[in-house]
Design a protein that fits this description.
Two copies of one chain form a homodimer. By secondary structure, chain A is mainly alpha-helical. Chain A has nine helices and no strands. In chain A, helix 1 packs across helix 2, helix 1 packs across helix 6 and helix 5 packs across helix 9. In chain A, 35% of the residues are buried. The N and C termini of chain A lie far apart (46 Å). Chain A is elongated. Chains A and B meet through helix 8 and helix 9 of A and helix 8 and helix 9 of B. The structure holds a DNA duplex.
Chain lengths: 202, 202
Amino acid sequence: MLVKDNLTRKERIELKATELFREKGYAATSMRDLAAKLGMEAGSIYSHVRSKEEILQKICFRMANEFSEKLTEVENSNLSPIGKLKRIIIEHTKVITKDISASAVFWNEWKHLSKPFIDDFQLMKNTYEEKFIDIIDQSVKSKDFKKTDNKFTAMLILSALNGIHQWYKPEGPMNPEEVGEQLAELLIGGIKKKLKHNNSKH
Amino acid sequence: MLVKDNLTRKERIELKATELFREKGYAATSMRDLAAKLGMEAGSIYSHVRSKEEILQKICFRMANEFSEKLTEVENSNLSPIGKLKRIIIEHTKVITKDISASAVFWNEWKHLSKPFIDDFQLMKNTYEEKFIDIIDQSVKSKDFKKTDNKFTAMLILSALNGIHQWYKPEGPMNPEEVGEQLAELLIGGIKKKLKHNNSKH
DNA sequence: CCTACCGATCGGTAGG
DNA sequence: CCTACCGATCGGTAGG
């Protein structure tokens, strides 16, 4: 994280919890682990936070909201279908790279949410995927894309995007926008060189 | 799983543990949860298994071995570089789809391995990734692929492959070989239709 | 394979 | 923010 100053106590707790949840997983992270990282006792955390799960909820729903806001923006733009897909890949990449730890927790630990929350979360996740598939559908209808199983294609792209947190290093040569552009280029155009006269078979 | 008969007690324990580790995560699965699924008491499991972690170790290293065996086979084949990449995508897909639960555990829970084992595991994982990058390198040198950051490309492909367990349904219309071929086609060739005269820019 | 149990650790609270 | 503590649950064992 770039700025560790100017954080409220509550924000510092959430920041350190995010890092621990990512490293050890939610279930294997104890409030005593978290307290040690913060230089305090476990009981003291509860002055700022209602429960361990409350922290997880904030992380998961903050990320879910960021993803769906960006998707809505792109949907409402007047880009071409293929332009929308490229744009959403870039925006999704930027959200992930902005906070890799929170993205990893969002992606790997949401299953530990309890009953009313996990249903809300899955609903948001499903809605996001459906809208994503819809953008692929539009691209196929506008003849930009090969005709394939569009859900299959959507899941392929989402898997590639949601794996970013496992290898992206902020110190690397590419900034988030560039990473997103490169991903969009490879996913949409493929990694194979295009030849002058080819037919897309084999 | 297709065949649940003819399993030793130990195999039944590992099978149910794999499913639970996938659903709830390793840390959140108790030996009492597992015992309940098996219709026995927690203490009884220890007649067949040394520890909870031993089960995780078997799952993780079995999958790791399957992946690296397939990779070695493909490396030693006399396929072209691009043929090798296509083949390894298909073989990787087949290993994952053959046991989705074990794949999910392999991918999400290895961080709970303890000290000597986690180092061995990470070594195998790194070796696999390096060999994968090497196949991309060869394809670029043989002029089949666009010149890009090859590690970047490798991680994109591996992310896409390792996301399969999150959406693949064995009841679906495509069998594993077909899923692998479709993935290879989309990753290598891209999702965009190829036009007669294009230059790969924009 | 079960009963009965161990010490350790968990999330969380009361009272200051 | 700490001390001192609660009941619950954990992985694992002994003895049958």
